[in-house]
């Protein structure tokens, strides 16, 4: 019983946690810039246009490419992630920051193309706190290709904001889910994930994430005794920062 209660508290705290001092959380932009080597600055929503005439762009995933997300819903500034591995024509692994939890780094987690045309214009992304594919469909601009495809290491830097390595997935496990994922009828378009059979849903949830214990400390450090109004305000603010 305690384990489940703690799990629920951890999830809620992780979604709203911000350092008490008011320091900013690591954003997706500096993380993607360092890991990919794509030297673009400014909000994520501007990367696609800024890349024109500077970097090749396209709609096919490649290792080391930056996946540029369009602003959508609460994600008003867009988002950028780096492709770490291409599993097949509909599945890639990505590395990104400030997605599931403010400031958290997620490495080699799954992103699935759910676009009707198979052009990666709409994706679903793994949500580490719940251990499953996110419910939201996210529109994208496409991929920005660096001059030299290389995944660079990211070292936490307080100057870039508070961060925690939330989870790292084993890429081999995602590959084991491949046969089930390929069984999806391509004609189902953007809504096909909603109708997946039990075996496919199990395959997508199978990976065991190695949670960094610092993530728990990060979540447990959330201020306690706060009102529901304060919590809602934090969630809205964090959504805007993403």
Automatic annotation (TrEMBL):
Residues 3-124 form the Peptidase C51 domain. PROSITE patterns: CHAP (PS50911). Keywords: Signal. InterPro entries: CHAP_dom, Papain-like_cys_pep_sf. SUPFAM superfamilies: Cysteine proteinases (SSF54001). Residues 1-22 form the signal peptide. Pfam families: CHAP. This is Surface antigen. It comes from Sphingobium herbicidovorans (strain ATCC 700291 / DSM 11019 / CCUG 56400 / KCTC 2939 / LMG 18315 / NBRC 16415 / MH).
């Amino acid at each position: 019983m305690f384990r489940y209660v703690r799990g629920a508290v951890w999830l809620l705290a992780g979604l709203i946690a911000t350092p008490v001092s008011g320091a900013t959380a690591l954003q997706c932009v500096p993380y993607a810039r360092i890991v990919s080597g794509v030297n673009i600055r400014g909000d994520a929503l501007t990367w696609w246009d800024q890349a024109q005439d500077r970097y090749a762009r396209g709609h096919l995933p490649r290792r080391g490419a930056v996946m540029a997300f369009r602003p959508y819903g609460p994600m008003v500034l867009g988002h950028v992630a780096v492709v770490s591995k291409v599993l097949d024509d509909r599945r890639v692994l990505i590395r990104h920051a400030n997605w599931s939890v403010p400031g958290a780094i997620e490495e080699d987690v799954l992103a699935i193309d759910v676009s009707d045309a198979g052009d990666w214009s709409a994706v679903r992304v793994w949500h580490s706190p719940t251990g499953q594919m996110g419910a939201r469909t996210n529109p994208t601009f496409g991929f920005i290709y660096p001059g030299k495809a290389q995944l660079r290491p990211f070292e936490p830097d307080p100057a870039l904001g508070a961060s925690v390595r939330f989870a790292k997935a084993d890429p081999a496990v995602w590959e084991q889910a491949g046969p089930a994922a390929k069984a999806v009828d391509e004609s189902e378009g953007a809504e096909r994930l909603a109708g997946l059979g039990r075996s496919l849903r199990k395959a997508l949830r199978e990976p065991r994430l190695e949670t960094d214990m610092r993530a728990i400390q990060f979540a447990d450090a959330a201020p306690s005794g706060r009102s529901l109004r304060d919590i809602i305000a934090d969630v809205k603010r964090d959504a805007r920062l993403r």
